[in-house]
Specification:
By secondary structure, this protein is of the alpha+beta class. It folds into 2 domains: about 5-95, Alpha-Beta Plaits (2-Layer Sandwich), CATH 3.30.70.140; about 100-150, SH3 type barrels. It is built from 3 helices and 9 strands. It has helices at about 25-30, 70-75, 145-150, and strands spanning about 15-20, 40-50, 55-60, 80-85, 90-95, 100-105, 125-130, 135-140, 145. A hairpin with a 5-residue loop joins β2 (about 40-50) and β3 (about 55-60). The protein is elongated, with a radius of gyration of 17 Å. The chain starts with 13 loop residues before the first strand and ends with a helix. The structure holds cytidine-5'-triphosphate and zinc ion. Cytidine-5'-triphosphate binds near residues 11, 16, 82, 84 and 86.
Length: about 160
């Protein structure tokens, strides 16, 4: 790729979340709790031409390596993403995001009457019925959550 074509430059240290399905970069940023007020460089690229996908989204977070919990969160909104940990300009680790079969603690149930939304000390728990499109079933009340529900109900 020539200088003229360079759209997003390589980073020195941090995390590159690549192969995000087109249109989901902002959801990835949201589920990671990134507000834009962090004192680090964050690049959000949407609808980037790619060889495997027709277009893809990319998020680059400089100066921060994501932990496994954060990687699992990404799987909720971008099940085909790959995570690249960058050190001194090289990819030192590549992780595929993977959605566990059971999700505990990250998302709240959308049913206000669910026991997990009461004052009882109950940790929310969901079974992954389908990854793409996302479909989660509450262990306690059997309510079904979709991706849009997840994006407004995570902790
Ligand atoms: N990347 C970066 N800064 C670096 C190294 C890599 O931003 N110092 C980005 C690349 O632009 C790419 C991703 O991290 O979006 C993965 O890099 P690399 O493994 O080199 O690319 P590919 O071989 O194309 O990866 P894949 O096979 O996962 O598509
Ligand atoms: Zn419930």
């Amino acid at each position: 790729m020539s200088e003229k074509d360079l759209r997003v430059s390589k980073i020195k240290d941090g995390t590159v979340i690549d192969h995000i399905s087109a249109g989901y970069a902002l959801d990835v940023v949201k589920i990671l709790g990134i507000t834009g007020h962090e004192r680090r460089i964050i690049t959000i690229a949407i609808n980037i031409p790619s060889k495997n996908f027709i277009v893809k989204d990319i998020v680059k977070i400089e100066g921060r390596a994501l932990n496994s919990q954060e990687v699992n969160r990404i799987a909720l909104v971008a099940p085909h993403a790959s995570i690249n940990i960058i050190q001194n300009y090289s990819v030192v680790k590549k992780l595929e995001v993977k959605l566990p079969k059971i999700i505990e603690g990250i998302i709240k149930c959308i049913n206000p009457s669910c026991i997990s939304n009461s004052n009882e000390p109950v940790t929310p728990k969901f079974y992954v019925k389908s990854e793409d499109p996302l479909n989660l079933k509450c262990h306690y009340c059997s309510y079904i959550l979709e991706k849009s529900d997840v994006l407004c109900n995570f902790n």
